[in-house]
Specification:
This protein has 4 helices and 4 strands. The protein is an alpha+beta fold and 129 residues long. It has a 4-stranded antiparallel sheet. Strand 3 and strand 4 form a beta hairpin. Helix 2 packs across helix 3. The chain is elongated, with a radius of gyration of 18 Å.
């Protein structure tokens, strides 16, 4: 499981507490999918592989974590505007497995201003030339 540390392939930054919550949420989602699709061989194979290759995953799986967080906060490193702390809301479509993620910033905050900036600058670079 990724730690979101600088130099990793993600632009999302997590505190240790956020990382633990994310891991629990991901394992919970997978457990929920396994319950919805018990005959899915590929899904069972994925779970078997994760349990064999990740002690952290195996520990969480054995703990029987269940649930699905609906709201969380994420700090994202945008290449043009820097760090943004956003609320991440999840809309689930019951019975379909479809999830829609929506990111927003508290209105009137610096994060809201930064979030609006990419829409204005488009593909322009803010770096001095």
């Amino acid at each position: 499981m990724s730690d979101g540390a600088p130099g990793s392939s993600t632009r999302i930054r997590h505190t240790q507490e956020e990382q633990r919550a994310l891991e629990i949420g991901m394992v919970s989602e997978l457990r929920s999918a396994a319950g919805r699709y018990p005959a899915d061989r590929q899904l069972r194979g994925l779970i078997t592989e994760l349990r064999a290759n990740s002690r952290r995953f195996a520990k969480l799986w054995e703990a029987g974590v269940v649930g699905s967080p609906e709201v969380s906060r994420k700090t994202i490193e945008h290449p043009q505007v820097g760090l943004l702390t956003l609320d991440c809301n999840v809309l689930r479509m019951d019975g379909s497995g479809l999830r829609i993620l929506g990111y927003s910033a508290e209105p009137g905050t610096e994060d809201a201003e930064k979030l609006a900036l990419p829409a204005v600058i488009g593909t322009q670079s803010l770096a001095a030339e």
